[in-house]
């Protein structure tokens, strides 16, 4: 890429990096306030209120919270089961906070895993997620088809002894594209998803269908194409005997021929990355 293009990309990414960090700051702040008896609904509301106090008025999707075996999507069969419930947090119980705010027209979609006290199983899951982050980046830089990368992630999970839980998401996605969203004074949402963001995703899907690519990264044939340039919210999700863990963050894909510039994580100063560095 030329210096001018690099500068333009850097300017564009700054807003996405800021909103992603804002979302992770929210997750850490809410996680620090969780205590026995707090429900998933209360944890989701705490995320909404924290972000609204800092100017967030629109969402790709409203915040989620999953406690206990719901972190592994145990028994999930229909989309409504993803929404927060009255499940209450107990000592040692794992949790996942997931939020996708839009701020300044930029979108983030993050997942934060933790536990109320010590949970060795989730600690092991989080440690083993580092290999997935490395694999995904390496194979995207190799321009492998998204469907093949998905299958390689699956195989790594099997070798580690875990179950693929992102397969429980709609269309089994491990990632989806995000983009800028027009700012409006009032931004309604439908079933927890912001209408502006859904319109953008639908436009991407229509555009991609004409050109042979999809904004959804899935195990199905419509994802059998090389990585499409843009921003991808990636979320490998591991499960083991009723405990789940994941991270979710933005992967930047470009059309550069330089491998290191062709794909990179938007930000390496995130809680799970710092955690891996400290463990080493």
TrEMBL record:
Keywords annotated in UniProt: Aminopeptidase, Hydrolase, Protease
Gene3D superfamilies registered for this protein in UniProt: Creatinase/methionine aminopeptidase superfamily (3.90.230.10)
CDD domains noted in UniProt: APP_MetAP (cd01066)
Lineage: superkingdom: Bacteria
MF (Gene Ontology): aminopeptidase activity
Pfam families cross-referenced by the UniProt entry: Peptidase_M24
InterPro entries tied to this protein: Creatinase/aminopeptidase-like (IPR036005), Pept_M24 (IPR000994)
Domain called Peptidase M24: residue spans: 16-255
Protein known as: Xaa-Pro aminopeptidase
Taxonomic placement: Bacteria, Bacillati, Actinomycetota, Actinomycetes, Kitasatosporales
């Amino acid at each position: 890429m030329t210096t001018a293009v690099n500068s333009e990309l850097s300017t564009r990414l700054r807003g996405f990096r800021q909103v992603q960090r804002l979302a992770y700051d929210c997750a850490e702040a809410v996680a620090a306030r969780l205590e026995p008896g707090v429900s998933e609904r209360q944890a989701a509301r705490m995320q909404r209120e924290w972000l609204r106090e800092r100017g967030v008025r629109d969402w790709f999707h409203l915040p989620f919270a999953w406690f206990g075996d719901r972190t592994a999507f145990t028994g999930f069969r229909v989309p409504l089961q993803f929404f927060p419930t009255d499940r209450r947090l107990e000592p040692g119980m794992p949790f996942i906070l997931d939020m996708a705010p839009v701020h300044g027209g930029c979108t983030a979609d993050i997942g934060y895993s933790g536990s109320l006290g010590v949970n060795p199983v989730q600690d092991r899951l989080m440690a083993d997620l580092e290999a997935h982050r490395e694999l995904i980046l390496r194979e995207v830089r190799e321009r492998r088809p998204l469907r093949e990368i998905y299958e390689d992630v699956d195989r790594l999970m099997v070798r580690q002894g875990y179950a693929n839980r992102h397969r429980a998401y709609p269309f089994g996605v491990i990632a989806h594209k995000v983009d800028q969203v027009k700012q409006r004074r009032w931004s309604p949402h439908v079933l927890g998803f912001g209408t502006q963001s859904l319109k953008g995703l639908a436009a991407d899907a229509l555009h991609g269908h004409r050109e042979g690519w999809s904004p959804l990264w899935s195990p199905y044939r419509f994802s059998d194409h090389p990585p499409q340039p843009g921003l991808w919210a990636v979320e490998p999700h591991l499960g083991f005997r009723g405990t789940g863990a994941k991270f979710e963050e933005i992967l930047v894909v470009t059309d550069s021929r330089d491998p290191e510039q062709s794909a990179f994580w938007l930000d390496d100063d995130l809680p799970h990355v710092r955690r891996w560095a400290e463990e080493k």
